[in-house]
Amino acid sequence: MSRSPVSHETRIVDQFTRWAKPFAELPIHADAESMAQTVSACSVTKGMKVLDVACGPGIVACGLALTGADVTGVDLTPAMIEQARLRARKAGVSVKYQIGNAQHLPFEADSFDRVVTRYSFHHMQEPSEILAEMVRVCRPDGRIIVIDATPTPDCQAHYDLAETLRDRSHTSALTLQQLLLMGTDAGLFPLETQQYRLESRLQDQVAPEDWSALKAMFVEDIASGQDRLGLGAWNAEDGIHFYFPISIVVWRKNC
């Protein structure tokens, strides 16, 4: 008897159960400069109701809670919610966390002033459906903020190949143009777009069994001088370094 295919949701939970603690502790995820940009883009004030979708270990949720916002975080992976609750206790902030699926957010329509997700869309098979759910639970005139890696069109295929090797739950990283069009299709009004690069060391971002193949891909890309991965990779004394190309897109939900 053949085995049933593994669902994508199971793949996500398996990946992030395994990586929950290392992911939570990796310094780049709490990088001060990118966090400041994230908090600024969300433009929250004390008492605002904020939802962090696919919140992971609660880094963004806790950062927003420090402003006095009323923050809720939802994630598919129980191990990530455990890390998020631990982070909130250490930070001395109150965040309501719960396990939930971004495709079917367990909240009423028009419930939140701000709805944000960071580094999640590239894990989603149908990111437009996630965005539609974010729109549904956001109140009219509220803000929706999506933050994710956005490779250039000419590098997208190579970028996805490298990311899939590094992370089996990766689907495809949207280009900035694709992300903006998705917002237009959802009837959202664009307010702001920012971009930044997040430096990482390759060996910090890959499981040991995938290291050789991924390293070979990066070595070849560096040697070619063409940057086909779109990651600007280079050799440093402590290994291969590269940049994640990140975009922040902010929309307003129309009345």
Automatic annotation (TrEMBL):
One function term, GO molecular function aspect: S-adenosylmethionine-dependent methyltransferase activity
Record-linked InterPro entries: Methyltransf_11, SAM-dependent_MTases_sf, UbiE/COQ5_MeTrFase_CS
Entry-linked PROSITE patterns: UBIE_2
Keyword Methyltransferase: yes
Key words, A-Z: Methyltransferase, S-adenosyl-L-methionine, Transferase
Record lineage: Bacteria, Pseudomonadati, Pseudomonadota, Alphaproteobacteria, Acetobacterales
Domain of life of the organism encoding this protein: Bacteria
UniProt cross-references to Pfam families, sorted A to Z: Methyltransf_11 (PF08241)
UniProt-listed GO biological process terms: methylation
Full protein name: Methyltransferase type 11 domain-containing protein
Keyword Cytoplasm: no
Domain Methyltransferase type: 51-146
Organism: Gluconobacter cerinus
PANTHER family per the UniProt record, alphabetical: METHYLTRANSFERASE
